[in-house]
């Protein structure tokens, strides 16, 4: 498994629903942004891969909501990356509120890469991270 990445965030008012908490769909955006930053930290450019005909795709996302963020909360998204199978990789992610360090969400996001013909494969760039 590669290094753990931690990315800080703050909740913006418009991300909250009528109940005053972050809408459940917004957490997916936080997780996705953290995955892209993680890849960039590992010198993997998501956009450059796409231009080269290599598309990284999410094929499954499992999220366990354990609490709620509210407007103004500061939090981090912790991301780890590992191999799930020969052609699949796994991002293990947690959203942790700063201050009390409470884990508010745990996620496992499974992905794969597909080539320009839509066939799954493991690009060398990712395989090197998984060694």
From TrEMBL:
<dbReference type="InterPro" id="IPR006684">
    <property type="entry name" value="YbgC/YbaW"/>
</dbReference>
<dbReference type="InterPro" id="IPR029069">
    <property type="entry name" value="HotDog_dom_sf"/>
</dbReference>
<dbReference type="InterPro" id="IPR050563">
    <property type="entry name" value="4-hydroxybenzoyl-CoA_TE"/>
</dbReference>
<dbReference type="Pfam" id="PF13279">
    <property type="entry name" value="4HBT_2"/>
</dbReference>
<dbReference type="GO" id="GO:0047617">
    <property type="term" value="F:fatty acyl-CoA hydrolase activity"/>
</dbReference>
<comment type="similarity">
    <text>Belongs to the 4-hydroxybenzoyl-CoA thioesterase family.</text>
</comment>
<keyword id="KW-0378">Hydrolase</keyword>
<protein>
    <submittedName>
        <fullName>4-hydroxybenzoyl-CoA thioesterase</fullName>
    </submittedName>
</protein>
């Amino acid at each position: 498994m590669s290094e753990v990445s931690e990315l800080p965030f703050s909740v913006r008012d418009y991300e909250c629903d009528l109940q005053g908490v972050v809408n459940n769909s917004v957490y997916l955006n936080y997780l996705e942004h953290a995955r892209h930053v993680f890849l960039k930290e590992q010198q993997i450019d998501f956009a450059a891969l796409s231009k080269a005909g290599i598309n990284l795709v999410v094929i499954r996302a499992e999220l366990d909501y354990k609490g709620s963020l509210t407007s103004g909360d500061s939090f981090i998204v912790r991301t780890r990356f590992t191999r799930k199978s020969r052609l699949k990789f796994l991002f293990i992610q947690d959203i942790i509120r700063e201050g009390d360090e409470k884990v508010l969400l745990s996620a496992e996001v499974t992905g794969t890469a597909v080539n320009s013909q839509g066939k799954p494969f493991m690009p060398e760039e990712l395989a090197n991270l998984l060694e």
